[in-house]
User: Fold these one by one.
Assistant:
Number 1:
Amino acid sequence: MCQLLGMNCNTPTDIVFSFSGFATRSTEHGDGFGIAFYEGRGVRLFVDHQAARVSPVADLIKHYPIKSRHAIAHIRKATQGVVALENCHPFMRELWGRHWVFAHNGNLVDYHPRLHGSFQPVGDTDSERAFCWLMQELAKSHASMPPVAELTLTLKELVPQIARHGTFNFMLSQGDALWTHCATHLHYLVRRHPFGLAQLQDQDMALNFAEHTEPGDRVAVIATQPLTTNEPWVTMQPGELLAFVGGEPIGVSAVG
Amino acid sequence: MCQLLGMNCNTPTDIVFSFSGFATRSTEHGDGFGIAFYEGRGVRLFVDHQAARVSPVADLIKHYPIKSRHAIAHIRKATQGVVALENCHPFMRELWGRHWVFAHNGNLVDYHPRLHGSFQPVGDTDSERAFCWLMQELAKSHASMPPVAELTLTLKELVPQIARHGTFNFMLSQGDALWTHCATHLHYLVRRHPFGLAQLQDQDMALNFAEHTEPGDRVAVIATQPLTTNEPWVTMQPGELLAFVGGEPIGVSAVG
C-alpha cells in the first residue's frame, strides 16, 4: 500500500518537517514518490521513480522550504502498473483553467471506467483512470468552476461510484481547497495557536512550531498514519469526504 | 526576450552540460525558468520563479544527471503576464493519453484566440493561450494520436495562424518527437560519431563527448543562440518548422 500526505493552510507554509518524517516511510514503499505544491494557481510537481528516502529530488524538498497553501505527497508501493515515471502520483490535469492534482492510496479491482471525454490516462494505473473519470464527470457536472461547497456536493455523488470497486483513499486539490476521502486509513491534525512542540514518529526530530508561526496561522496536515507522537490526530471514518479550506475541514470543528 | 533550449536523442542522455551554459544566461532573463524531461511517457517538469542562475531547483538539475530522450528548457524575461509560477514555461497538457510540453520565446500582440474546447489557460500569458489553441486544434484535427509526419503536417497548417500575431519561436513535444519553430532566432546542432570536444560559450567549461558516448549515439541540441563556440550550429530560417526524432531533424540531412 502507498502512503499519502497532504497539507492545507491559511498562509503559505513549508512542508519540510512533515515531509522529512513521511519520506522515512519509503523503506517499505520504495517504488517512487511525488509531491505537488500550489503557489497561487501555479503548481510545482516533483516526481521520481526512486524512493523518497534516497531520491535527490526528495533531498531538494527536504532542504528547499517551498511555501505553499496546498500540498499533496505520495510514496508508492506498486500494486498496479509498472514502476515508471508516468505511474508516479500525484497526477495532474487542467480543468476550467485550473490545475487539478490527485493522489490515491489503495487498489481498485478491475476498474475500467468509460473514458469518453478529454481526460485519458498516460500510464496504466487504476489510480490515474479514477482521476480521469472524476475529471470527466466534474466537467460534465459544471460549465465552469463552481464554489468549493458545490464541488464537494458533486464529489459526494461521484466518489462512491469509484469507491465500490476497492480501496479508495485519495487527496485532490485545485488550489482553493484540498479534498480527502477515507476508505480505510486517513488521519488529520489542525495546528493553530497556541503552537507547541511536535515530535516526529519516524525519526528523532522535533520542532517547536511556536518559534516558526504567527498567532493567526492555521495548518491542517492529513496523512495515512499520524506523523507525530504528541499531537491530537483525528481518525477519519471509512466513507468520509472532507474539504479542507484555510487550514481546517469545512463544517467540522477543528481540534486545538 | 526569453531563451529556449531543447534536446532530442536516440538514446537517453543527460542535459547537464548544455543546461549549465544555458542557465548562465539567466542574468538578463531573471523572471523564472523551467525544464521538462521525458522518461518514456512520463514527464518531470521543474519550474521556479527564481532565475536559473540562483535557483536551488536549477542547481539540482545541474548535478542530478536525468537521462531523457526529449527535454525542453526555458528561461523567462517577462513580456506579458506577472512573474508567477503559473506563467513559467514549459506548459503541460494531456491530449490522447500523452503529456504535451510547450515553451515559447517571443511576443504575440493582442492574441486572444477563441478557446472553446477542453484547454484553458491557468496563467495570463500569450504563450499559454497559444499552446491551448494549438492543443484545441490538434484535438479537432485527429481523433487519436497520429504518426509524427502527420502531426507535422497539421502543425504546418496551424502554426502560421498564430505566428502572424507576433514573434513565435517555440518548442513542443509529446515524447515521440520534438518540434521547433523559428520566427527569429533558433539554432541546432547534431552531435554524432566521431564525437569531439565541445567548449561552452557562456562559461569556461569544456567536455569531450568521446569519453561519454557510444558510437551509435546521436543527440540534437536546439537553442535560441549557439551554446558552444567550436561546433557547427545550423541557423534555422524564419518560418521554418522542424520535427526532431532520434537525434536529428526529419527530412533534413544532419550535420556531422
Note: The first strand of chain B starts at residue 3 and ends at 13.
Number 2:
Amino acid sequence: MNKTPAGPRFTKLTKSLAASVPFVGPETQERLRGRAFDARLGANESVFGPSAKVLGAIADASQHMWKYSDPESADLRDALGVHHGVAPENIVIGEGIDGLLGYLVRLLVEAGDTVVTSLGAYPTFNYHVTGYGGELITVPYRGDFEDPDALIAMANKAQPKLIYFANPDNPMGTVHSLNAVQKMIDEVPDGSLLILDEAYIECAPDGSSPAFDTDNPNVIRMRTFSKAYGMAGARVGYAIGHVDLIRAFDKVRNHFGIPKISQMAALAALNDQQYLSQVIAQINDAKRKITEIGAANGLTALTSATNFVTLDCGADGDYARRVVGALGELGVFVRMPFVPPHDRCIRVSAGTADDLALFAKVLPQALEMARV
Amino acid sequence: MNKTPAGPRFTKLTKSLAASVPFVGPETQERLRGRAFDARLGANESVFGPSAKVLGAIADASQHMWKYSDPESADLRDALGVHHGVAPENIVIGEGIDGLLGYLVRLLVEAGDTVVTSLGAYPTFNYHVTGYGGELITVPYRGDFEDPDALIAMANKAQPKLIYFANPDNPMGTVHSLNAVQKMIDEVPDGSLLILDEAYIECAPDGSSPAFDTDNPNVIRMRTFSKAYGMAGARVGYAIGHVDLIRAFDKVRNHFGIPKISQMAALAALNDQQYLSQVIAQINDAKRKITEIGAANGLTALTSATNFVTLDCGADGDYARRVVGALGELGVFVRMPFVPPHDRCIRVSAGTADDLALFAKVLPQALEMARV
C-alpha cells in the first residue's frame, strides 16, 4: 500500500484563510467572456496615462534592468522628501499602497488584535488584517461619507492597533475637510495608529490634506503613483510617518522589491507636476461628463473628490449588480460598492472621450436590461 | 506636562527583529564612497542584459502602465507552463524568488517552528524565517558543496516545516547531479517541504535539474528572471509545485504586485531562448576569463555552475574582506561568502570584456593592499 504524503504543514492561521483575491481583475473577466472590454472604467486607473517624461524614463531605465534596483529607493525618497517637505527617513516606498498595508499590518497585528475600519471601506486592507489574524471592527458610514467621529469613538472603546480611514474615500468618492481630518488625527487614542489613505488626494480640492507632522507617532499617511499619476501597473506607493515607524518597515519588507523601472518612472512622474495638473483638469472634465450622462439617464452622481464618479442607480444592490453586469456585456468594465446601502451605486472611473461616448451610448440599454 | 505618545504597538515578534537588509545594495556603497563603481560584479546580475525583444516588450508595455497588472499573470504562467511542461495551476509568479520565499515562509512557519538550511546559504531566506519567528537549524557544507545527505538527516531528526537547498549553490557556485537532487527529493520526510532554489539553473550543465513532478506535495521549485535572463531589476520569480500549495499563495500574496511591464518583459525573455543560449555562452567565456585572471594572481577558481566564479584567496576571512574592500576602492564591486571556511573566497560575477579588463588590472593591486 502506497503512503500518500500529507504535504506541507501550514500554520493554523493560514490554513483558516480563503485563497481569495480582494478584486477580480478585468483580465480575468475578459478571459471568461472571451473578448476584451471596449472601455476600462472599473479600477479607477488613469486612462490618461503617465507623463511623456515617464515613458522616456522607462526607456532609459530599461537599459539598466539587468541590475537589481536600489533597495533604499534613495533617489525617489529624496525627491518625495523635497516635494512634501519631509525627510527621506520619514518615507518608505512599497509595492503599491497594497504592499505597504500588508507590511504595516504584519508589523502591528497578530491573532486577537483588533482593527477599526468603516463597513464597506477598502477590502484589500481587510484582506491583510484577516491574513494576519486580526479582528475587524467596522463602523457604518454616515450617509455616503466615512465617519471620523464614529471611528474615533470606536477606537476609544476597542483600543485597536490600527484605524483605517481613506480621504478621499473609495468607493463613494467623498472627502472630508482638512479640519475634520486634523481633528481626527488629534483624537487618535494613544496606542492606536491611524492609517490615513490618501490614494486619491491629488484629485481632491485644495486643502483636503493636513500638513505632514512626522513627529506624531500615531498617524501614517499613504500615497500612490497608481491613480492621478497614471502608473497603476508600476506598483509604487509610499508611506510618510514617524522615523521609528518608517524604519520598522525594514524589518519585514522585500528590500529589493521595487523594480528599477518603477522607481525611475515614479521619479519622472513626480518631476512633471505640470502634466499632473493637466491630467487633473482632464479628470474633472470627465467627471462632469459622467455626471451629465448619469443625469440624462435618471442616475444621481455623488460629488466626487477622486478620479471616479459614484452614480446612485436609485434602487437596491441587486439592481446595481445587474447594471454592472449589463454594462460588462456591452463592453464597459465598471465596479460598484460592496455593501448596502452603498451598493445601490455603480462606480465609473474618469474615461477618455471615446470611453465616455460608449458609456453614454450603452448605459440606457444596460439600465433597460437590468430592469428585467 | 505634555503626554508623550507611546506610538504604535508592534507585535512581540516584530519588536524583536532588527531593521536590517540582508544585502547592502551597491548604490548604498556608491553613495557612501561618493562615486559609482566602474565594474558591477558583486550581485550576480547579468551584465549582458536582457534580449532586445525584452526591450521592445517594455516599450509596448509602457503604453499600458496606467492599467493595474493582471493579478493572475495568466499570459506568463501559460507560457511558463508550456516551457516546463506543467499546468499553469502549478505555477505562481512572485516579486522575485525573495518575494516567493517570504510568502512561503508565512504560509508555513510560526513561532517555534524549525527550518533546516545550510550554514552560509542564502541569507534572504534566513531573513524571512526569522521574520516569522521560525528557528533556523543549519548543517555545514561538505567542502564547497551543500550537503543533501546532511540536510535530509537533520530533517529526519528535527522534522522541520521547510528545508532549503539551492542547486546550483550560491555563494560557492557548485552544483549537484540530477541523481543526487532526485535522491534528496525522494527522501524528504513527510511533513517537511523541500525548497529547491534553482535561481542559477540556466547556467548549470545540462541534466542538473530533475523532471518536474507536480504530484509531489513535498517539494517546491523556484526559478527567476533575475539571473541568466538579465532582468534582476524587473523582479519576476516563479515557483512550481503541487496545485494545493501553489493555490495557497493566493491566501497571502500581494495579488496586484507584479508590474505589467515586468510580466510582459518576462514573457518576451522566455520566448527568446536563442538569446538565452547566446548569453550562457558569454557567461561561460567570462567565467573562463575570471578563472584565468585568478590563476595569474595565485587565486584558485572553484568550478562554477552559475553566472559567477568563486575565487579562493588562500587565506582567512579577514584577508578576503580586505580584498573585497580594496577592489571596491579601486572601482570594482564584488561580494564574498559570509561564513568560514567559505569566507576565504571572493565571488565575481561574469562581466563584460571591459569589466574583466578592469578586474585583471586592479586585482594585483587589491591583493597587495589586502596583504597589509
Note: Chain A has two domains: 21-49+274-371, 53-271.
